[in-house]
Design a protein that fits this description.
Layout lengths: L1 H7 L1 E2 L5 H10 L5 H11 L13 H10 E2 L4 E7 L6 E6 L5 E9 L2 E5 L3 E3 L14 E4 L2 H15 L3 E6 L9 H12 L11 E5 L3 H10 L4 E5 L5 H7 L8 H15 L4 E6 L7 H11 L5 E6 L13 H13 L3 E4 L13 H10 L1
Helix pairs in contact: 2-3, 5-6, 7-9, 10-11
This protein binds S-adenosyl-L-homocysteine.
The site of S-adenosyl-L-homocysteine (SAH) has 16 residues, from strand 10 and strand 12.
């Protein structure tokens, strides 16, 4: 019955400030109310009742027209080693997604999910094993930031869209989320403090470029040639390496923002000297940045991480070509902090 009622209500937290104002004006409310309500939403209220400086009648009217479905913490793990906090959230409909709060010297970063599951099918990734269940609403992405901050007590200054899901496959909600989290009356997190990671949906990269946002685009490249890339990333069969890199070039030309390429080092798959050389050929002189990721072991996958010696040689080969290379530090090694693993673990247990 409650679910039936909620169906005709709408999702207030996904509304942009202008849309919220239009809704409230249509309800006969003065203009300033929208800002008041928007601010309450960003503070993480769990009900309209908590908006204590609104007239009771308005709180009731809001409750009749809109729903609020704040997530609850289903599991929380705190790393004893580096303080990384990992959340498994339970959403309004019982689905689950993960977020991770990482503490860095330059500020705390939250990694958020954009979909329940993922349709992209990358061979090394735990998030995609059960396929995609649904898109997240903008409000559900935003709530991961708001409630991670509230629960952990860590003021969040940076966001990475690198959790479960392919952000560009949920383009409209992700864009709405970016606008909401960036709003001065909301979390007020600058676009330059946000990174979006994609497996390489080239057309959507072009669409994003047109918006000229100042966020950082990370592209999961993971192989410089089509043969290797198609084996580990099915998306490569739709947008091959040449098509993807051409879209990346256009993105840089249009936005002036340098792209960061992610490259998970997989033993004997994409880590040979020939791969390093070809990667160097493709990227030298483009000013981009390569972030090598030591592969996280996914129990369902036969793929293994590269040896430290191979990693060292790979780095040296790229650096010789003048490419800026970093290796992703593994945070929260004691708490399964890599994406998709906690949700996956829970879903398996229930079967
Ligand atoms: N769908 C987006 C964002 C999610 S994943 C994307 O593909 O970019 C964030 C990063 O983690 C991606 O670069 C992804 O390829 C990488 N990743 C996924 N599984 C991994 C694993 N087992 N080990 C290392 N990196 C992994």
């Amino acid at each position: 019955m409650q679910a039936e009622k909620d169906k005709i209500k709408s999702d207030i937290k996904s509304l942009l400030p202008g849309e919220l104002q239009a809704e409230l004006t249509a309800m006969g409310e003065p203009k300033f109310r929208a800002k008041q309500v928007f601010r309450w939403l960003a503070r993480g209220v769990r009900s309209f009742e908590e908006m204590t400086d609104l007239p009771k009648s308005l709180r009731e009217k809001l409750g009749e027209a809109f729903f609020l479905t704040p997530p609850t913490v289903e599991r929380k793990q705190v790393s004893a080693i580096d303080g990384t906090v990992k959340y498994l959230w339970r959403l309004g409909d019982g689905n689950r997604v993960e977020s991770v709060v990482m503490r860095y010297e330059h500020g705390n970063t939250v990694c958020v999910s954009t979909e329940v599951g993922c349709a992209m099918g990358c061979a090394f990734c735990a998030s995609t094993l059960g396929g995609k269940v649904r898109n997240l609403a903008a409000s559900e992405i935003l709530d991961q930031v708001i409630f991670s901050e509230l629960d952990s007590g860590c003021k969040i200054s940076n966001i990475v869209l690198m959790g479960i899901g392919e952000p560009l496959d949920n383009f409209d909600s992700v864009l709405r989320f970016l606008r909401l989290v960036n709003d001065p009356d909301g979390m007020n997190i600058g676009m330059r403090h946000i990174s979006l990671s994609t497996c390489g949906l080239a057309e959507k990269i072009d669409k994003l470029a047109q918006l000229d946002l100042q966020l950082t685009l990370s592209v999961s490249l993971h192989a410089p040639d089509n043969e290797t890339r198609s084996k580990i990333m099915p998306v490569n069969r739709a947008y091959d390496v040449e098509t993807l890199l051409a879209a990346c070039r256009r993105y840089f030309e249009r936005t002036g923002r340098r792209i960061s390429f992610e490259y998970a080092m997989i033993r004997d798959v994409n880590d040979t000297p020939a791969h390093a050389k070809l990667l160097g050929d493709r990227l030298a002189g483009t000013g981009c940045h390569v972030n090598l990721i030591p592969l996280n072991d996914v129990p369902e996958s036969a793929l293994k991480p590269s040896t430290p010696e191979t990693l060292r040689r790979f780095i040296a080969s790229l650096e010789k070509r003048g490419i800026n290379v970093t290796v992703r530090r593994k945070l929260g090694p004691d708490i399964e902090a890599s994406c998709g693993q906690l949700r996956r673990g829970m879903e398996k247990k229930e079967k």
